[in-house]
Automatic annotation (TrEMBL):
InterPro entries: DUF1203 (IPR009593). It comes from Paracoccus albicereus. Pfam families: DUF1203. This is DUF1203 domain-containing protein.
Amino acid sequence: MALTFLPIPTGTARALRDGPDAYGLPPERIGASDGIATPCRHCLAQVPEGQPYLIAAHRPFCGLNPYTETGPIFLCAAECVPGGPGFPTRMLTAPSYIVRGYTADERILYGTGSVVATSDIPARCEALFQDDRIAFIHIRSASNNCFQCRVERA
């Protein structure tokens, strides 16, 4: 099965750079990345070391319901080229991530969420997509639950 790994849309990245974020606040500008992992949700790569980046509240859903989580994301402060559609190896550098399936009405499909070794993410996504109720998948931080990217059937 072919998978597509999707960054946040370019329009969303531009809007977040200009502010406000999902909470109505301007994004926090950090002077430079200094060796800490700062995965940009638009280019699906680590913010280049020494470059400024933003932290903004983001809600990666279209509608509102009890499952539409909002949380912090990192974003290159400067314009960057959107990542995808392949597996984002330059961004997903932790040993594991949460992989969780959602229905078309943006609700978690219970029983789909699990912590998965990074190298096993594509296989886990393929297995989840065998269930026709799953419309999309989120990859999230295993330690902080932050949204990383969205996965869809290609």
